[in-house]
Design brief:
This protein has 91 residues and is mostly beta strands. Helices cover 4% and strands 35% of the residues. The termini are far apart.
Length: 91
Amino acid sequence: MAYSHPNLHRIGPSNSDAPTLWTYSTTDATAVVDSASYFNGAVADLTVGDIIIANTSTGGTLAAGLYLVSANDGTDVDVNDVLVVTAADTD
């Protein structure tokens, strides 16, 4: 599956020069989302320094992570390697 713009949601801030936080959900695996140019469909929305909180692999074993937008030249968007969010479920 490819990037799906309706699944990217801004959560703030609304009127600041601070980085924007986004949420994103996809059935794509973390390694796919981590690929260069994956977020090109959001080139007009994402700014260097923005942070994307993502749920990935939603069709299988759910994973979550944080992605930092490291480059946006107006054509291509790149994010840093995912910072994986993990937690033990011992029950």
